[in-house]
Structure formats: structure tokens, C-alpha cells
Predict the 3D structure of the following.
Amino acid sequence: MATLSVFTDHNLNGQGFGYLDREAKARIALPLRFTPAVCAVLVAIGLALQSPVWLGVLVPIGLSGALFPRAMVTDVVYNYGVRHLIGAPPLPPTPKPRQFSYVLSTSLVAGAALSFQFGLPVLGYLLGGFVLVGASILTTTLWCLGSWIYRMVFGALPEVDASTALGEHLGPSSALHGDTGGFIKA
């Protein structure tokens, strides 16, 4: 069984995964790195190419994470494809702090795309660079700057009990088809 450091536990709680027990967090700690890793690679390619089109295509992907907690494009790719290839657990729905992070990163990627489109490459590199650094930190440490900003703006996250978490995060329409997958604290 995977172990979970206090640091990682704290970082996952800060993203809104506090409703998960330590065992569940230990199981998803590595899979939760998939989405920011993919984001970092795709943004790096867009910056290297200085491509407003490439970066513009990433905007709806990021927006999907902000708007649909159970259906971010990269999470769906992971849940219905990648995880089966590597025998990993499914990702739980995206909590509000992490969704907020997607709003911020999507805005920065859109700004980078527009900057390259209008001949402002330094601004494009700066805006895209923020996303690249943030996604890289999230991938390596699971500390999420956007979630931290969320908590600074909206306050501490409330404790979520199992019944609330089950109804709000893992309802029958979820990617987990109503199965808690061991994600909910008893």
C-alpha cells in the first residue's frame, strides 16, 4: 500500500480532497499528477511554438475542468483510458478549490494565446510561464497555487461528512457511477 506524507496530505486537503480518508488519498496521490503534467507539457509546446492556435485549443480543455467537476477532458481521458492501462484507481470529481485553479490557469493560457496573436511574445511567455510553473509545482508536490488563492479569497474549506460528500461528489451521474471507490471517510 502507498504511504501518504503529512505534506502531501496537507496539500490534498488544501485542494478540497479533505473528504477522502488517508488511504484513498494515498491511492490517488500519483494519479492526481496526470492532469497537471499533461497541462505542463501542452503549455510548454504552445510556448515553444509561440502558437496562439495551440494555446487557444487548450482553453476549452482547462475550462472543462472549471465547469464540470466530473468531466474535465484530461480527467476523462485518464479515468476511461490511461488508468485501465496502468491499473490505477479512478480520479474523484474535482473539488471547488481545484476548479478555481482551472479558472485561473485557463485565463492565463487565454491571455498567452492572445498575446502571441497580437505580437506580444514577452507577455505571452510571462502568462504561459506562470501556468507552466504552477502546473510543474502541482505535478511534483501536489501543492496548488490556485487552491491556495481560493482559500485566501473564500476562506478555509468546511469539513465535509461522508453523507454530504457522497451526495455532492459521487452521485449516480458521476464518472464513478455512484460507487465511492473507497474515497469517502466512514
